[in-house]
Write a structure and sequence with these properties.
Length: about 160
Amino acid sequence: MTGKRTDYLSWDEYFMAVALLSGHRSKDPNTQVGACVANSQNKIVGVGYNGFPWRCSDDELPWAREGAYLDTKYPYVCHAELNAVLNSISFDLRDCRLYVALFPCNECTKVIIQAGIREIIYLSDKYKDTDSVRAAKIMLDKSNTIYRQFFPSRQVVTLNFQVD
Ligand SMILES: O=c1ccn([C@H]2C[C@H](O)[C@@H](COP(=O)(O)O)O2)c(=O)[nH]1
Ligand SMILES: [Zn+2]
């Protein structure tokens, strides 16, 4: 009998990969964010990505970053973390972990804390110098919500639609 595979994904790699895959659904041309909520039994209970609200056409709202506020994406886009919580199969996300491509903003952080999520695992902290992320970290620290950056031990996970 042969031994088990050794290069299988760790739980962290698996859930982060699901978060990143979800981000591929985003139509944001600049920043695609995916999020995945896993419970204490390592079951996925919610996924989401940044996109416009239901019934708000992707073709009619702007994806611009600059210009008059109402002509940008910012007032309209639902963030990945919000969608992951709202899409969740469980109302109560106590003790769940949230895997996300980008450190959550202050508004998502409120949702994460209120949902009972205990730990955030993120990849990028590219907006760490903004007041939004500073406020997020203040709230996370006060609420004893753990956050840690994910440093992958592999750079790439390949998906091949051609299976034998
Ligand atoms: O917590 C967050 C913060 C941001 N997002 C989304 C919202 C936007 O679609 C992009 C950010 O766009 P930029 O062009 O990089 O400003 O990311 C999110 O989903 N979650
Ligand atoms: Zn957000």
